[in-house]
Amino acid sequence: MQFSLPTPVAQPMTAWRPPLYPVPWAASHNDHFYFTRPISVDQILWPNLDYRYGGVFFKPSATHTGIDIPAKMGTPVLASGPGEVVWAGWGLYSNDPSNQDDPYGLAVVIRHDFGYRDLPLYTVYAHLEEVDVVIGQWLQRGDRLGKVGQTGFTTGSHLHFEVRLGENTYFSTRNPELWLVPPQGWGVLAARIADSFNYTVPNTDVTLVSDDTGLEWELRTYPLIGANGDDYYQENLVMSDLPAGNYTVFFKFFYIPQEIKIQIIPGNITYFSFRGLLGFGPTLPPSDKLDIFFTPTP
Predict the structure, then answer these.
(1) What pLDDT digit, counting tens, does each position of 200-222 carry?
(2) How many CB atoms lie within 10 A of CB 74?
(3) Sign of dihedral through CA atoms 154, 65, 181, 36?
(4) Domains in the chain with CATH codes
(5) Distances (CA, A) of 113 to 179, 229, 250, 296
(6) pTM here?
(7) For 121-130, what is each residue's pLDDT tens digit?
(8) What is residue 24's DSSP assignment?
């Protein structure tokens, strides 16, 4: 079971938002910033760590499979990309349109007219106050599909947003922060923190500190179950919407403090890996056998 609760504002935020890069945006052929923000006010994606992708609350089996974007009741929700509406209404989790107790509440799912690695892509918009589209309707990027609400398992208004790859199921999600185009001049951090045998280390608290401003972010690696790493990066930690600059990452591995300096580059994904006793390695995974497609899907 998944739960999605309102996101408390845990980080300082300014009123100014840089414009987004054009869509699609990819600084390398392994990136896939295919989607625009579903809320036009373009909130920075800095929710509390329990409400990020892979956050765990209540119990270990309750994994958050999307991101929560804070917004007022009635705020228009926009399609993040062109495609066909394949779900509109109640019952997304239970697959029962008559189930008004479904944890997603009122929800919309779009199957997009482009894919990744020749697989279809879906986006999910949940906890809506109202749905303004019907199944089979074609939407363009930016078309309104509903309004922000608090239906389903939630106690406050916000939008729960998911990216699904291959199938329209909660087992097929990916971290939306690797798919939403970043603001101009800002970048994204992705990391794989693993043990010496390259098994990812779950639920590890990580602190990210800006060397330039002193701002801090509290992060956590994905749990063992419920969150999926990117097909290329195989990450278990992501932080988007980071102003370009120098940062320090802190965490503990078997109670031993670890630290690495990184640089966030505008419009890029900054990646590092850690493998237990082998230490840090900035080298990206090999990509010579990886084929990326940005092609229409049936």
Answers:
(1) 999 999 999 999 999 999 999 99
(2) 11
(3) negative
(4) 49-178 (2.70.70.10), 186-281 (2.60.40.10)
(5) 15, 23, 40, 5
(6) 0.89
(7) 999 999 999 9
(8) S
